[in-house]
Amino acid sequence: MRFTALALCAATVSAFAPAAFQHSSSELQAQHLSSQTGMSSLDPSVIDKYNSLPMPTEKVLAEYVWVDAKGETRSKTRTLPVAKTASVADLPKWNYDGSSTDQAPGEDSEVILKPQRIFADPFRPVAAGEPQNILVMCDTYTPDGEPLPTNARAIGKLLDLLLICK
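Below the sequence we write its predicted structure tokens.
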């Protein structure tokens, strides 16, 4: 399980790496973003403007990470109060449109992200004394609480329970 989480984190470095973390000019950062993610480049002055904004000391960036139907890593970022990031139980569930990730049909596309583990975010470093941003590894569920067919961890937990009961 630990190896899987570490491999997931390592495989997504370019997806999470903020411009402030990379030690190069904004222009090179924009070129890297374009070549590594397929996203169009941003004006370096825009990148610099947003990198220079201070982060409120009572908030953290929580990057919710999950695996889609094709086995690719997906994520989205949420700003949370520090108090809601102390443990997995404190983290709020979140949702997204599963039709965009092939995890739900278009007419019933809500998917729930349920936090499972928290890791310090190495891709969004903070100054000493500031709250640490986090990576939130999530499982995917229907609004009724049923694990999605692509939720391999939930299937693994079920199999573990079946083996224990034998």
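The longest strand covers residues 110-120.
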